[in-house]
């Protein structure tokens, strides 16, 4: 325990001494961000739309959805199971079409009565006008629903303060993989 504390103290000292290099950018300083908020406070947000596809692998070492925890009870609704995912966002429905980003998040079966889950996700864009920006989604879904409706609760970078609604519908699914169509309507500044 003592050794651990010494290590942690040492870590803290090293952390404060080692220059980290980059720091925050000019457009992320308190002044710049305050100015940005002031500006958008007087602006009407504009409606935008993003449309792409989300690809998941279920099997092998390239699985992009994994079960990370489950309870020690047997539940017909999967209650208590927790999954982590890192899916590829593509421009077209084909798995090998151009990648525009990744959808990374967690979902868990959160109902004891039905096959329902709660999901939180970051959509991280790696190409195009939103490269380097993210959207944050929160949603509730059941296995009964054909189209899921999630909330876009925020964004970062060029998508800062984004707010909207995302629709997700499965285009293809088998034991190995799934392709989901994603259509997002959102307000942005
Ligand atoms: C996983 O995917 C990567 C690239 O997408 C590929 O190079 C690798 O061979 C794949 N591994 C398996 C086990 O399929
Ligand atoms: C699950 O684990 C808890 C805590 O260890 C224990 O009290 C409970 O009896 C277990 N339930 C079952 C169904 O094994
Ligand atoms: C799924 O697996 C294939 C083949 O292993 C790989 O090329 C592809 O990149 C994987 N897709 C995702 C979304 O991880």
TrEMBL record:
Signal peptide: 1-23
Superkingdom: Eukaryota
Annotated GO CC locations: apoplast
GO biological process: phenylpropanoid biosynthetic process
Keywords from the UniProt entry: Apoplast, Secreted, Signal
Keyword Signal tagged: yes
Described function: Dirigent proteins impart stereoselectivity on the phenoxy radical-coupling reaction, yielding optically active lignans from two molecules of coniferyl alcohol in the biosynthesis of lignans, flavonolignans, and alkaloids and thus plays a central role in plant secondary metabolism.
UniProt protein name: Dirigent protein
Pfam families: Dirigent
Localization per Swiss-Prot or TrEMBL: Secreted, Extracellular space, Apoplast
Organism: Oldenlandia corymbosa var. corymbosa
Quaternary structure annotation from Swiss-Prot or TrEMBL: Homodimer.
Claim: Metal-binding is one of the keywords in the record: no
InterPro entries tied to this protein: Allene_oxi_cyc_Dirigent, Dirigent
Main subcellular location: secreted
Similarity comment: family membership: Belongs to the plant dirigent protein family.
């Amino acid at each position: 325990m003592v050794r651990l504390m010494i290590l942690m103290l040492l870590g803290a000292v090293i952390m404060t001494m080692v220059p980290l290099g980059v720091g925050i950018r000019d457009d992320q300083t308190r002044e710049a961000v305050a100015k940005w908020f002031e500006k958008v406070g007087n602006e009407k947000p504009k409606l935008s739309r993003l449309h792409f596809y989300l690809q998941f692998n279920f099997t092998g070492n390239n699985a992009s959805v994994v079960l990370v925890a489950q309870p020690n009870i047997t539940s017909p609704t999967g209650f208590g199971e927790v999954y982590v995912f890192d899916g590829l966002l593509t421009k077209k429905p084909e798995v090998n079409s151009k990648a525009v980003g990744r959808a990374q998040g967690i979902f868990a079966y959160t109902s004891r009565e039905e096959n329902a889950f709660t999901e939180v996700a970051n959509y991280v864009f790696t190409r195009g006008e939103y490269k380097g920006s993210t959207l944050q989604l929160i949603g509730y879904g059941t296995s009964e629903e054909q189209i899921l409706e999630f909330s876009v609760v925020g964004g970062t970078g060029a998508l800062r303060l984004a707010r909207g609604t995302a629709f997700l519908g499965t285009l293809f699914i088998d034991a190995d993989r799934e392709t989901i169509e994603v259509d997002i309507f959102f307000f942005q500044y």
